[in-house]
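Check this:
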Amino acid sequence: MNTVSRRLSALLLTGLTLCAAGCQDTATPNGHAKPASSSSSTSPSSSPSPSSNPKPTGLGTVHQDRAYSKDLDRTEGPITVKRGERFSIAMRQNISARADWSVAKPGPSAAVLRKVGESSYQTAREKELVGGGHTKYFTFEALKAGQTRIVLANSFGTDKSAGGYSPDLPRTVTYRVTVR
């Protein structure tokens, strides 16, 4: 083995050792990231963003969207709720992966559902990643018995003026909702 090969091998071995020493298991058995532990303190951010928001509260029952579906337009549900009940639809949002979800106009029937709001949550692991995504929650309250649809649109699959538009990206997810 020549000198260059030995140095290259030593360098590679050192790099692998440092990587192994710095790596830690950040996933829990359910696949969610554990909060990273740190001995240093950081001051809180003055403006909330998906990377600094605490986990949202008041979401009601959360319906997690099937992530990574290749369907351009798909329908899910039905979601069945009782009058007065609050529920949320959780969508994986990642601008760098061209997934930017919003409630499409005209929105669900105002007589049946009321949109309470939107909120975001990013796990500790997602906060560490450059271009990492987050979960966006669309929260609604059931007002009276009836049926309606919630259409969520991906701006990168529907808005041709968006810089990252592509006809191959998911465009819409329609949730059928029944209020009893």
Remarks:
- The helical segments are 3-22, 124-128, 155-158.
- The longest helix spans residues 3-22.
- The radius of gyration is 22 Å.
